[in-house]
Design a protein that fits this description.
By secondary structure, the chain is α/β, with parallel strands linked by helices. It has a single domain, classed as TIM Barrel (Alpha-Beta Barrel). The chain contains 11 helices and 9 strands. Strands 5-4-3-2-1-9-8-7-6 form a 9-stranded parallel sheet. Helix 1 (24-36) runs parallel beside helix 3 (72-83) and helix 1 runs parallel beside helix 11 (242-256).
Length: 258
């Protein structure tokens, strides 16, 4: 069974966090805290040295994790460990193609089989996904599609033809943690996507507070939200005090679970 096929019909909450941030042992505590709230999805970011879509906050978290010598294998082991307490929460890996290729595509898929429900390969072009997608499909791992405001209807139709899990709709052009949310524009694009697919459409990039989550829920037909940068930002706001960070994280997740 793939947990992404069992998502609720509305108000889906997906939380992103970088593996190994700030350190491997602290990362385990961060994910334990996130998991204790049982969000619908956790997205595990695999640290990468040259991220092209991540904003400065997620980039910094990757940098810190890499400085503490986190490896892909350690990240995957951490995810497998957390799986034991996942209950209804779906696990999704978000990473760059280079990480998978360096590890070895077949080895990587073997490692994540029966552990994760989906994977987002940020820089894998649709035209080149066939061989990886076939392997993922054989192992019941959904390849999650990213769609931005710049994706025209013809292309999104092709992208969504065999899409599974959910659609990651990027609310704004640019990088993660972007500022302004245009609800009218988001809703127009979400409605267009919903005509092309039956799977949930989740909105990510720039969602930072309960107010943003409520506004997306009230002003758009999106099925849920993805929050990443805002979770990580709290660590820096609290001057990297880990004890205070965990308390702050707990409070924030309770707030955004609407």
């Amino acid at each position: 069974m793939n947990k992404l096929d069992q998502l609720p019909s509305k108000k889906i909450l997906s939380l992103f966090m970088t593996c190994g941030f700030p350190t491997l042992s602290q990362s385990k505590k961060v994910f334990d805290e996130i998991l204790s709230h049982q969000p619908d999805i956790i997205e595990f970011g695999l640290p990468f040295s040259d991220p092209m879509a991540d904003g400065p906050i997620i980039q910094e978290s990757s940098k810190i994790a890499l400085k503490s010598k986190i490896t892909t294998k350690q990240s995957l082991n951490l995810i497998a460990q957390l799986k034991k307490n996942s209950q209804k929460t779906a696990f999704v890996i978000m990473c760059y193609l280079n990480t998978v290729q360096k590890f070895g595509v077949q080895n990587f898929i073997k490692e994540i089989k029966n552990v994760v429900d989906g994977i987002i390969l940020v820089d894998l072009p649709f035209e080149e996904e066939k061989s990886i997608k076939n392997l993922l499909d054989k192992n019941n791992i959904h390849l999650i599609k990213l769609i931005s405001p710049m994706t025209d209807q013809k292309r999104s139709k092709r992208l969504l033809k065999e899409a599974k899990g959910f659609v990651y709709y990027i609310s704004a052009t640019g990088i993660t943690g972007s500022n302004k949310l245009d609800y009218k524009e988001i809703n127009k694009n979400v409605l267009a996507l919903k005509k092309q697919t039956k799977i949930p459409v989740l909105v990510g990039f720039g969602i930072k507070s309960k107010k943003d989550v409520m506004a997306i829920s009230k002003n758009t037909k999106a099925d849920g939200v993805i929050i990443g940068s805002a979770l990580i930002q709290k660590y820096f706001d609290l001057k990297m005090n880990f004890t205070k960070y965990i308390i702050s994280l707990r409070k924030f997740i309770k707030e955004v679970k609407i």
